[in-house]
């Protein structure tokens, strides 16, 4: 009988984060989704399968950490209790070099990432596994779809920006989800307006509302829009120094994007999707 990878035996929910193009803030949305779920008491694992540009170790401020092998497989890096990260960034020797691999090598790596990482345990199952994917629909996507074929993931969050929504890339991403049977949990419009660092007023620099229109035209849920908040960038950059010993979790607690993310994640939680285990 076909079965999902054993490493997912103790994972209750699997959510993928996709985007049609690079640089729209997919990794930031993944990071914030993890922090938001964690703040609500869930245990969260994040798997970074963006093999050519793994940015999550830096975002979570754990770039210098290492993954360890156990008899059951790789142990992901613990960012803090109940928050874990696995990324190729931990395995490559020079983190400033992006990997240039052909399809079969990428496919093999993703297979290993899905099969050989210990997520949760019988006594402490993982509530959410978030999978951050590269932009577009590449070898990595085909490999992950193959690995998750029998794993019953909750579905995918699609991240776009106001400038991107009218392009065909988002539709391609949605077609991909339809083909591989990933439910589209909803569309998020990131970089939608700019929060002034002085008065916290949000100004729409580009036109906004495209994400909502797109979801309406495709009859898909709209999860919300996230403005550009310079304090979020600062929070990521400041982690190593000048944080007065505060962790990323504590810093994000004060970020103005947190209540916005709470609403976005609330819409997914409201779906009450059944646990896989
Ligand atoms: N809402 C936001 N407010 C402030 N900065 C943001 C926001 N979203 C993204 N950024 C910043 O924009 C940059 C690009 O974001 P990110 O790395 O998340 O994009 P990405 O889509 O994952 O890119 P890639 O496809 O290259 O991996 C980062 O420096 C990130 O901190
Ligand atoms: S939003 Fe207000 S405080 Fe911010 S730059 Fe504009 S005028 Fe100044």
Automatic annotation (TrEMBL):
GO terms for biological process: iron-sulfur cluster assembly; tRNA wobble uridine modification. CDD domains: Mrp_NBP35. Its main location: cytoplasm. Signal peptide: none annotated. [4Fe-4S] cluster binds at residues 196, 199. Belongs to the Mrp/NBP35 ATP-binding proteins family. NUBP2/CFD1 subfamily. Component of the cytosolic iron-sulfur (Fe/S) protein assembly (CIA) machinery. Required for maturation of extramitochondrial Fe-S proteins. The NBP35-CFD1 heterotetramer forms a Fe-S scaffold complex, mediating the de novo assembly of an Fe-S cluster and its transfer to target apoproteins. HAMAP family: Mrp_NBP35, NUBP2. This is Uncharacterized protein. The lineage of its organism: Eukaryota, Fungi, Dikarya, Ascomycota, Saccharomycotina.
